[in-house]
Write a structure and sequence with these properties.
The chain is about 10% helix and about 55% strand. It is mainly beta. Strands 1-6-3-4 form a four-stranded antiparallel beta sheet. Strands 5-2-7 form a three-stranded antiparallel beta sheet, with no helix packed on it. The radius of gyration is 12 Å and the shape is globular. It comes from Amycolatopsis orientalis (Nocardia orientalis).
Amino acid sequence: MEHLWYEIGSCAGGAQFELELRGSAARVCLMDADNYQAYLDGDEYVMYGGFWESSPLTLEIPHDEYWYLVIDSYPGRIRYSIDGPY
């Protein structure tokens, strides 16, 4: 499955993640390590996020964990930053 991914690392729940997309709309997902592996394997997975057509967008880290940012259906460039918790 073609996608962009970034290893965000350990984040505390409640931290907010800001993302700016350049180019076109995309499906943006936050996943923990187990769910990212399930995504790669084509198995069922849980993700936080959704399809975004405008930016910047802000996602909240739901709980303490090691996180990955996954972006698919995105032909443009990406810039992101993590700030938080707010």
